[in-house]
Design goal:
This protein is mostly beta strands and about 375 residues long. The strands form five sheets. Strands 2-3-4-5-9-8-7-6 form an eight-stranded mixed β-sheet, with no helix packed on it. A hairpin with a 2-residue loop joins strand 20 and strand 21. The chain is globular, with a radius of gyration of 20 Å. The two termini are about 30 Å apart. About 50% of the residues are buried.
Length: about 375
Amino acid sequence: MCACGNGNGSENAGPQVAAGADDAAPALAADGRPFVATEVARFDEPWAMSFLPDGRLLVTERAGTLKLLGTDGKAGEVSGVPAVDYGGQGGLGDVVPHPDFADNGLVYLSYAEAGEGDIRGAAVARARLAFDKQGGGALSDLEVIWRQVPKVAGRGHFGHRIAFGPDGHLWISSGERQKFDPAQDMQSNLGKIVRLDDDGSVPADNPFVDDGEVAAQVWSLGHRNPLGIAFDATGQLWNIEMGPKGGDELNRVERGGNYGYPIVSNGDHYDGRPIPDHDSRPEFNAPALSWSPVISPGGFTIYSGDTFPDWQGDGLIAGLSSQALVRVEFDGKNAREAERFDMDARIREVEQGPDGDIWLLEDGEDGRLLRLTRPG
């Protein structure tokens, strides 16, 4: 990995690169956009990133490597990552620090975990992170606190995004693993949004807590491949998910809500078989916004920073096939696409930095970490 570009600000403003570095990359052409994109670093198949309280950045690489990018722009490796089942869409997924990381040092990782035979499923583990003097660190006391049930064949639709809610609960998005029907099966946690305590136990006030061990985890069902979850300023959870052939969705996630997949969708099966639209089955929760043609959403965040004050409260979506950063405005239970910025690369992840700048990860080998700042 190389570190290049430059930045300024205090130590907790995120990874910086030494001014005047010989390999500094120039800012990308603005082309009228309200930001300048500067390359900070490169990673091998990056999938997710999260900032630590001191401004350092954790980045997962899908083959199973966890990187720690310092505020000086230099990266070290974090050892102790669990073995991942790498292939297809599977591998090391999300990384999120505990809300009390400064005191307890806990980080949460999602990943594809092999089963017996040719089966696999997503898992979430937590571990304690200790830093070393070489700019990296090590995980210890690793504990798996959640697994997809059941493990199945195939290497698609793991979902496995992680978020902590304002109330401290742990939220996990679980894809339906390209198996369709499990999204409606309450004996399975595939195709669901899951709500847990931070140790993996089930909160007593979950909507299906009386319906059995797996069902007790579930907050909402009928999801396909949810690849982004984020809370707005009111504490409302939103999720972004890939539809089939058409019908990517942004959903306002409600307690006990059923979002209808695979019974309804605003897209169709890849083999051409139609799926009834949401309008045909009003008993299911309809998306607040859907896309056909698709944007292929990756990561998702709701912006609250000062760098782009006009965007406060807006959703920012990393677009894969659309090769874009998509901005969404909310209006109560509704949403609309406000802007789409061509990034000329598949964008896997978007996060807000500690100082309000926006950070993007490109998908694939040699994927760039970009920092979006105000022009000038």
